[in-house]
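Fig. S4 source data, part A: sequence.
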Amino acid sequence: MKIGIGLPNQVRDVRPAIIPEWAAEAERAGFSTLGTIGRIAYPGVMDTVALAAAAGATSTIGLLSDVLLAPVWPAALLAKEAAGIDGVSGGRLTLGLAVGARPDDFVADGHGISGRGERFERDLRVYRDVWSGLPVGDNPAVPRGTREVPLLFGAGAPAAYERMARWGQGYIAPSVPPDRAAAAFDQARDAWQRAGRDGSPRLVALAYFAFGDVEAGRGNIRDYYRNFGDETASVVAAAARGGAAEVKEAVAAFGDLGADELIFNPGLDDLNEVRRLAETVL
């Protein structure tokens, strides 16, 4: 199982300049992937911006949005942004996508939360058209030679699994304990088989972590999820791995599930967190 690390782009009031430093440190440490958590209505850095900064600061590490809220974007604009990040990185981007659930993230006119599932289906076709070089207006939106960016899908609704099996290369489980991730992975595998896909979907697990001030890290995670209600926010925060023993336990548990990759997302934006995680899991 590969081990990746998230960028701290959605830690409340993150210092944006730390993002390229964090990315470079993670690559030097040997992590497989840099991930991002994405939303708009929160005082962080947009996932596309964080991924672009990481692309420019690194040369080999993978880049993954885990997950980006696709229907909040005009489809052609997101496709062009993603193609640009992928091109700058030398083909290292994978887009992890979901429909989103918080109404306040849907800020663009004509791209509200209502009808987002149907809109997402249309958008996926637009992405492929843009990446293949079909015109947007009078011209293609992307340079010749642009590749189709690989897609993974998150969320737990039946439509999300079906969408993953039709459009994607795999599935990203939510930040939940291993037993709940196991059920999600089973549904992803079942959807893949029903769709007649060869092989198996790529399965990515997510876990929050903190090494320094663990309670502050859990507080940041709780704050990020608080508009889902205090109970949900507290459950997610409590599941964050605090310190080496809990981090190692997560690696063993998700490895036993057959996850292809586990990405540890930070609760703190302290650069020392990268080093301490690497010392523990790599």
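Fig. S4 source data, part B ends here. The domain at 2-281 is CATH 3.20.20.30 (TIM Barrel).
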